[in-house]
């Protein structure tokens, strides 16, 4: 195994991920936990980070680069928002050092759109964008980054010019767990497959309705009561309605260059969005979200001079 | 005081209301509590009802007519849904007796729309409709009944021909208490006034967007972070967005006769909907929701022969 050059950390509201990377960016070890900002705010950020670093055998002087909610005002150390328009690579230069630590730790800033009528913020997605910079370095692009708070980002020649947020993932969570619909979805809602008929139908309905799914949500409950539809059917319908509505809505407010979207997403969610985007008439170029944030963090480390090639920089 | 002729009960998911009525329908006493179906399902419906009847001094043979979720499958005694189209006055004839009680207790049925593509159900609102029957007895009408689950009902010559449900009240509740927006709205969200600028602006925005408020919800959070907007401003914005979206959405899927809506609503919510409906270009004829359900329950009692006029039927 080559020596580690840097630890890269994506520290979100409710999740923590750490990769130990060598000087070429190859992954030497990985850690995932649910010790997000909410947990770390109570227990302390440094002890959680050091415990994970110790678990992967990181040396005491290994530098760490962090993105996400650890840089929020209520996080570890505030990394103030960079205001749009912002060059994607310039964002990486704004890393804020965490004082009083034995090792060098830097937190990347988030982005703020300060338009009076469309204020918006992101923390973490800007680092994913840095990780897919080669895909958007020239020309106009629209990047869809689905999740708890889905971001749709407009770029021009590698500069972020605007973005908007949809609460899609959070709406699925609160509606499936806290609303009347929980009786229809049951305890353990499993994500549908992209070709699940109820997902396909609901997604098509939301697209046709221009994103207005107001009259469709309670129908999930009524379909259980009157038609005996299953919890899996209810979950697939809710997922299709919310994803279809996000895409219809985004296409209403954002002009797509050449009817093409760059999708940065992983796993089941990535497959559902890719299917829904294609159904809406978009060509889709997909990049993996986990790889994107890791690549962005590594790129930030490289700019800090933490990844100078050495004789060890060969994959074993 | 005249003698009571009947107790009228509106028993919802999370609320209980009882009126002691004389033979002319005048209110002799009223009780309100939060012992809705959820509480009563655990503690028992009969003890809760009898405690409230005793508190208002009801005689042991006083009959009781009930509407709402007490008639659901998971309620007290199931009063099966009446299927559309249904005459409003015919619904009142479907009251189901509660067996094994010392007094005569009847529960009114709910309504079901069994269209394959738009299944829907209501319990309680059909009794409110019966209470405003004179307003919709002839011609076509659209009735808006806002609440946790807002109902928009189409009637033709006193027959209910169709309805749709919007989750507006429940969306406000889960978004303001369970989502990221709770940090912006704070602990005790107070309803705005109809002329609160943030309500007016958000309502207009939702109407102009045809009910697609997807890109607007997270902006409430960003406006707190970037613009220092107050919790009251955030609550007024969320309220305006959701009410405006419901109205835009309903106007998309339901054709309004003569651009006129019959609004059955009480208090602050009624004022907000009246303002928003007028802003959308509708004429509004408003009836009080509490009075409507009480009148509907009394009308059901009258058909059961429980309100025969006697010499006592004079208001003191």
Automatic annotation (TrEMBL), chains A, B:
**Family matches, as InterPro entries:** ATPase_NBD, DGOK, DGOK_C, DGOK_N
Name the lineage: Bacteria, Pseudomonadati, Pseudomonadota, Alphaproteobacteria, Hyphomicrobiales
Q: What is this protein called?
A: 2-dehydro-3-deoxygalactonokinase
SUPFAM superfamilies associated with the record? Actin-like ATPase domain (SSF53067)
């Amino acid at each position: 195994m080559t020596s580690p050059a840097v630890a890269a950390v994506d520290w979100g509201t409710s999740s923590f991920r750490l990769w130990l990377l060598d000087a070429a960016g190859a992954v030497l070890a990985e850690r995932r936990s649910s010790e997000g900002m909410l947990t770390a705010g109570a227990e302390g950020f440094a002890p959680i980070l050091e415990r994970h670093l110790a678990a992967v055998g990181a040396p005491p002087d290994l530098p760490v680069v962090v993105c996400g909610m650890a840089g929020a005002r209520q996080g570890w150390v505030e990394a103030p928002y960079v205001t749009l328009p912002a060059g994607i690579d310039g964002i990486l230069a704004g890393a804020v050092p965490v004082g009083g630590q034995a090792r060098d730790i830097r937190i990347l800033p988030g982005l703020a759109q300060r338009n009076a009528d469309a204020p918006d913020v992101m923390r973490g997605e800007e680092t994913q964008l840095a990780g897919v910079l080669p895909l958007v370095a020239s020309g106009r692009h629209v990047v869809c980054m689905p999740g708890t708070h889905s971001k749709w980002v407009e770029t021009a020649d590698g500069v972020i010019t605007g973005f908007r947020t949809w609460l899609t993932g959070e709406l699925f969570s609160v509606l499936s767990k806290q609303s009347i619909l929980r009786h229809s979805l049951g305890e353990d809602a499993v994500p549908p497959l992209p070709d699940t008929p109820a997902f396909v139908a609901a997604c098509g309905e939301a697209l046709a309705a221009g994103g207005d799914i107001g009259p469709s949500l309670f129908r999930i409950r009524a379909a259980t009561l009157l038609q005996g539809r299953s919890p899996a059917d209810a979950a697939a319908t809710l997922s299709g309605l919310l994803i279809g509505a996000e895409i219809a809505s985004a296409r209403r407010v954002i002009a797509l260059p050449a009817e093409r979207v760059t999708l940065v997403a992983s796993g089941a969610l990535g497959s559902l969005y890719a299917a829904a985007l294609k159904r809406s008439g978009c060509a889709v170029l997909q990049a993996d979200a986990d790889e994107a944030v890791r690549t962005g963090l590594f790129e930030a480390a490289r700019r800090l001079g933490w990844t100078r090639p050495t004789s060890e920089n060969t994959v074993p």
